[in-house]
Protein backbone atom coordinates (compact mmCIF):
# COMPACT_ATOMS: atom_id res chain seq x y z
CA UNK A 1 0.00 0.00 0.00
CA UNK A 2 2.79 2.27 0.55
CA UNK A 3 3.94 2.02 -2.96
CA UNK A 4 0.39 2.68 -4.13
CA UNK A 5 0.12 5.80 -1.98
CA UNK A 6 3.49 6.97 -3.23
CA UNK A 7 2.41 6.12 -6.74
CA UNK A 8 -0.92 7.98 -6.32
CA UNK A 9 0.92 10.92 -4.66
CA UNK A 10 3.43 11.03 -7.47
CA UNK A 11 0.62 10.68 -10.00
CA UNK A 12 -1.21 13.58 -8.32
CA UNK A 13 1.98 15.65 -8.28
CA UNK A 14 2.65 14.88 -11.95
CA UNK A 15 -1.00 15.63 -12.73
CA UNK A 16 -0.82 18.95 -10.84
CA UNK A 17 2.35 19.82 -12.71
CA UNK A 18 0.70 18.80 -16.02
CA UNK A 19 -2.44 20.80 -15.16
CA UNK A 20 -0.25 23.77 -14.21
CA UNK A 21 1.68 23.44 -17.49
CA UNK A 22 -1.56 23.09 -19.47
CA UNK A 23 -3.07 26.16 -17.80
CA UNK A 24 0.13 28.11 -18.33
CA UNK A 25 0.13 27.12 -22.02
CA UNK A 26 -3.58 27.96 -22.28
CA UNK A 27 -2.91 31.36 -20.69
CA UNK A 28 0.06 31.94 -23.05
CA UNK A 29 -2.07 30.87 -26.04
CA UNK A 30 -4.85 33.26 -25.03
CA UNK A 31 -2.28 36.07 -24.65
CA UNK A 32 -0.82 35.21 -28.03
CA UNK A 33 -4.29 35.17 -29.62
CA UNK A 34 -5.07 38.56 -28.06
CA UNK A 35 -1.75 39.95 -29.24
CA UNK A 36 -2.35 38.43 -32.68
CA UNK A 37 -5.75 40.13 -32.91
CA UNK A 38 -4.25 43.43 -31.71
CA UNK A 39 -1.31 43.15 -34.12
CA UNK A 40 -3.69 42.26 -36.97
CA UNK A 41 -5.79 45.33 -36.17
CA UNK A 42 -2.61 47.47 -35.98
CA UNK A 43 -1.42 45.94 -39.22
CA UNK A 44 -4.74 46.69 -40.92
CA UNK A 45 -4.67 50.27 -39.59
CA UNK A 46 -1.08 50.65 -40.75
CA UNK A 47 -1.97 49.16 -44.11
CA UNK A 48 -4.88 51.60 -44.46
CA UNK A 49 -2.64 54.53 -43.55
CA UNK A 50 -0.01 53.26 -46.03
CA UNK A 51 -2.68 53.10 -48.75
CA UNK A 52 -3.79 56.60 -47.80
CA UNK A 53 -0.19 57.83 -47.93
CA UNK A 54 0.29 56.14 -51.31
CA UNK A 55 -2.79 57.95 -52.61
CA UNK A 56 -1.51 61.25 -51.23
CA UNK A 57 1.90 60.52 -52.74
CA UNK A 58 0.33 59.88 -56.14
CA UNK A 59 -1.67 63.11 -55.88
CA UNK A 60 1.48 65.00 -54.90
CA UNK A 61 3.39 63.40 -57.78
CA UNK A 62 0.69 64.55 -60.20
CA UNK A 63 0.79 68.06 -58.70
CA UNK A 64 4.59 68.01 -58.87
CA UNK A 65 4.49 66.95 -62.52
CA UNK A 66 2.08 69.80 -63.25
CA UNK A 67 4.35 72.22 -61.41
CA UNK A 68 7.40 70.91 -63.30
CA UNK A 69 5.57 71.38 -66.59
CA UNK A 70 4.64 74.92 -65.55
CA UNK A 71 8.25 75.61 -64.55
CA UNK A 72 9.45 74.34 -67.93
CA UNK A 73 6.91 76.56 -69.72
CA UNK A 74 7.93 79.54 -67.60
CA UNK A 75 11.60 78.88 -68.35
CA UNK A 76 10.79 78.79 -72.07
CA UNK A 77 8.85 82.05 -71.78
CA UNK A 78 11.74 83.54 -69.80
CA UNK A 79 14.15 82.56 -72.59
CA UNK A 80 11.79 84.07 -75.16
CA UNK A 81 11.56 87.29 -73.14
CA UNK A 82 15.33 87.39 -72.75
CA UNK A 83 15.69 86.92 -76.52
CA UNK A 84 13.15 89.67 -77.18
CA UNK A 85 14.89 91.94 -74.67
CA UNK A 86 18.28 91.27 -76.25
CA UNK A 87 16.86 91.91 -79.74
CA UNK A 88 15.21 95.08 -78.47
CA UNK A 89 18.46 96.30 -76.96
CA UNK A 90 20.25 95.59 -80.26
CA UNK A 91 17.55 97.49 -82.17
CA UNK A 92 17.78 100.30 -79.63
CA UNK A 93 21.55 100.50 -80.09
CA UNK A 94 21.14 100.53 -83.86
CA UNK A 95 18.47 103.23 -83.63
CA UNK A 96 20.65 105.25 -81.28
CA UNK A 97 23.55 105.06 -83.73
CA UNK A 98 21.27 106.06 -86.61
CA UNK A 99 19.81 108.89 -84.54
CA UNK A 100 23.28 110.15 -83.66
CA UNK A 101 24.31 109.99 -87.32
CA UNK A 102 21.12 111.80 -88.34
CA UNK A 103 21.70 114.46 -85.68
CA UNK A 104 25.28 114.93 -86.90
CA UNK A 105 24.03 115.20 -90.48
CA UNK A 106 21.33 117.64 -89.36
CA UNK A 107 23.94 119.77 -87.56
CA UNK A 108 26.18 119.76 -90.64
CA UNK A 109 23.22 120.63 -92.85
CA UNK A 110 22.19 123.43 -90.48
CA UNK A 111 25.74 124.84 -90.59
CA UNK A 112 25.74 124.66 -94.40
CA UNK A 113 22.32 126.38 -94.55
CA UNK A 114 23.47 129.11 -92.16
CA UNK A 115 26.60 129.62 -94.24
CA UNK A 116 24.54 129.72 -97.43
CA UNK A 117 22.15 132.23 -95.86
CA UNK A 118 25.07 134.39 -94.77
CA UNK A 119 26.65 134.13 -98.22
CA UNK A 120 23.27 134.83 -99.82
CA UNK A 121 22.69 137.93 -97.69
CA UNK A 122 26.22 139.16 -98.49
CA UNK A 123 25.64 138.48 -102.19
CA UNK A 124 22.21 140.14 -102.01
CA UNK A 125 23.65 143.25 -100.39
CA UNK A 126 26.42 143.36 -102.97
CA UNK A 127 23.90 142.90 -105.77
CA UNK A 128 21.71 145.69 -104.35
CA UNK A 129 24.73 147.98 -104.13
CA UNK A 130 25.69 147.07 -107.69
CA UNK A 131 22.10 147.71 -108.83
CA UNK A 132 22.06 151.07 -107.06
CA UNK A 133 25.40 151.96 -108.65
CA UNK A 134 24.17 150.89 -112.08
CA UNK A 135 20.95 152.89 -111.61
CA UNK A 136 22.99 155.88 -110.62
CA UNK A 137 25.26 155.38 -113.64
CA UNK A 138 22.27 155.12 -115.94
CA UNK A 139 20.70 158.23 -114.43
CA UNK A 140 24.01 160.08 -114.74
CA UNK A 141 24.29 159.02 -118.38
CA UNK A 142 20.73 160.00 -119.05
CA UNK A 143 21.37 163.33 -117.42
CA UNK A 144 24.55 163.78 -119.46
CA UNK A 145 22.75 162.80 -122.65
CA UNK A 146 19.85 165.14 -121.90
CA UNK A 147 22.21 168.07 -121.54
CA UNK A 148 23.56 167.45 -125.03
CA UNK A 149 20.39 166.13 -126.61
CA UNK A 150 18.33 168.15 -129.06
CA UNK A 151 15.00 168.69 -127.35
CA UNK A 152 13.34 169.45 -130.63
CA UNK A 153 13.22 165.83 -131.52
CA UNK A 154 10.46 163.56 -130.11
CA UNK A 155 12.80 160.80 -128.99
CA UNK A 156 14.97 163.18 -127.07
CA UNK A 157 11.97 164.73 -125.38
CA UNK A 158 10.72 161.28 -124.31
CA UNK A 159 14.12 160.38 -122.89
CA UNK A 160 14.63 163.68 -121.10
CA UNK A 161 11.03 164.28 -119.96
CA UNK A 162 11.58 162.85 -116.51
CA UNK A 163 14.83 164.78 -115.94
Provide the fold topology.
Elements: H1 2-148, H2 154-160
Largest sheet: none
* Mean residue pLDDT: 91
Quaternary organisation: single chain
- Tell me the fraction of residues in β-strands, as a range: under 5%
Which secondary-structure class do the elements indicate? mainly alpha
| Envelope shape | rod-shaped
Computed CA radius of gyration, to the nearest angstrom: 65 Å
Helix content: over 70%
Count every beta strand, where a strand is a DSSP E run of 2 or more residues.
0
The parts where pLDDT drops under 50 for at least 5 residues are none
- Taking the alpha carbons of the first and last residues, their distance comes to 202 Å
User: N-to-C SSE series?
Assistant: HH
Q: How many helices in DSSP terms?
A: 2
Describe what is shown at a glance.
With 163 residues, this protein is mostly helical.
Walk me through what this model shows.
The protein has 163 residues and is mainly alpha-helical. The protein is rod-shaped. The longest helix is centred in the middle third of the chain and has 147 residues, at 2-148. The mean pLDDT is 91. 0% of the residues are buried. It contains two helices and no strands. The protein has helices at residues 2-148, 154-160.
Question: What keyword list fits this structure?
Answer:
163 residues, rod-shaped, mainly alpha
Amino acid sequence: MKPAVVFVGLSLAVMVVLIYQAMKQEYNLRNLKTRLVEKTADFQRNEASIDELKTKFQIMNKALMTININIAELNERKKEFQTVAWNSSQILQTCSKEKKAAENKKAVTREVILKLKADHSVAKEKAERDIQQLKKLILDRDTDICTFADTTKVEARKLCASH
